[in-house]
Amino acid sequence: MSYTPPLDAEVTAFVTTALLASGATFNSGVLDADGKTQVQTEINASHDGTIDISFCADSGCTDVVRSLSIPYTAADGYQFFAAPAFGNFIEYKFTNTTAATQTDFYYTTKFLTTGLSPQLLTTEAFIAPAMVSSLNRSISVGENINGIYHNAHHGGISTTNSTTTPLSGTGVYEGGFVKTIGMTSTSIFVKSDVDSAVGGLKVIHSSDGITDDRVLGFTFIAADNPQGLIYLIPASTQYFRLKYVNGVSAQTEFITSIKFESSPQQLPTLPINLPISDNTLANTVKALSVGQQPDGTYHNELHDGVAFQTTDDLVTGATFSSDVIDAQGYTQVQTHIVSDQDGTLGFKFCSTSDCSGTTVGADGVERYLSVPYVADNGFQLYAAPAFTPYVQYTFENTGTGTTTQLFYETKLLTKALSGQLLGLDAFIAPAMVANLGRNIIAGAVGSTFKNVNVAETTNDAGTYHNLHVVSGARPSQLPGRTPVKIVLDISNTPTLVYSATTGKTLYITDLVIFIENSNETEAGRVNLVNSTGATTPVVYPMVLADAGNKSTASLVNSHTFTEPLEFDTGVYVDTVDGTNEIVGILNGYEE
Questions:
Q1: What is the CA radius of gyration of the chain?
Q2: Is residue 277 part of a domain?
Q3: Which of 261, 290, 312 is the last residue of a domain?
Q4: Domain extent for 27
Q5: One domain, residues 91 and 37
Q6: C-alpha span between 408 and 312 (Å, rounded)
Q7: Does the predicted TM-score (pTM) go above 0.70?
Q8: Residue 74: which residues within 8 A CB-CB, separation 6 or more?
Q9: pLDDT over 70 for what percent of the chain?
């Protein structure tokens, strides 16, 4: 009968205090752990490093059955690790990963034949961070809705959907599908120093981990989110992944990740007085407001929106027609158009959805407006009440070529449109809009009232419709007229005093002329002629007596014309008879 010595409860497998240079590695060699049930490792080093432990099936440690690589941070100080002796042979290493030689190093492992009790303390004893405790791991199992039992999952960041590698211009990051069983929500973090493509952040749901069944697209704007942005989205399908398409500019910074949560994600709770910014998280809520109609029924409340919009070019003579639009429940229609070709707008207001008629009273058409559009006028806006339950819009290209710019749309509004609000002395541009107001002025005639008529005036500035109102303004002050004042100082010589502008007419409204005739035997005569040199046609003649036995005979002519004198060529002063000195002023205007 052989003798078996008693086993020691604890044996030191190795211990070292030899300092390691930068990058150097301590190796314990392969240690025989046969018959040992527990290994206990302790370390304290002045510099960071890496602990490598290999559990082997053979003494040469070529058959590694389990390996661990544990980072060591010097700032954490003394560290303790204990575990079962998984293999019969074990090898321990420590590498100094810093750029300096250690100044302190203690590294040891003990083999135990009994389990290790980490710590026994009194009920209220102090607990220090360097104390040790047993590591317990357990898995919770639950029955799902289909009667199948699954391990309970824990949340965490998906490594297959996380990256910090910047993308090139238009570059793409593709995440991998992750099974979301046991997950209730996801929080997605994105940060980039440039904008994504439009809808470039894509959150993809899948039922099989292969097919992209549902894709939600978001556009990341770097300037609006310098600290990054968080999206909270339910894990609503069995698989989930990220895709990110960068904009045209290359990134220098990019972070994106998905964190899966096993419990509903809670939004941050903020103090009442804390300012809320665009980056503050908030629940997205969708709700419908319902209101009672005049007939007593209930309907969802409507919201303002675009009824139709087109930017398709039209060839000459072609017509765009919108669908028949249901305007019930709306109070206002607002139409915008800009085109580089002239055209005609058509607005059909209908009592039925047929709205196919081309004249008022046919096939539901109750009101029809045909509005000319001039391309030179640029952007135009038209707004009016929603007169009927249905409306349809057309635009015919009546220009000389195909449109290369056309934008035509109508919005339906639930409230009246305010044209423009400005400061009292604010600049007013022609493209600004204003409310259309029409008023009628009435005057009393005896005991009855009649509307006041207007007079039409047309000249180069356009056609005006002005009230028949007497004012102190001179005729030359009306829009489109150029005031003209001619000074006369002529010594008995036919003279051209004014040449009319080409295409215009000079109107003399009043004059003051003084003439002296020094001829003792011949009467004086002066003509105002519509000419630049000819003696006809005479527009206005002036005659005065001869001087006789006096030194001169004189004439003063001052007159305001009810109907102005007209000169469409020029004003030529012709001294016909006598010896005449002429001075004076002619007042009028050209148009």
A1: 49
A2: no
A3: 261
A4: 10-112
A5: yes
A6: 9
A7: no
A8: 45, 46, 47, 48, 49
A9: 89
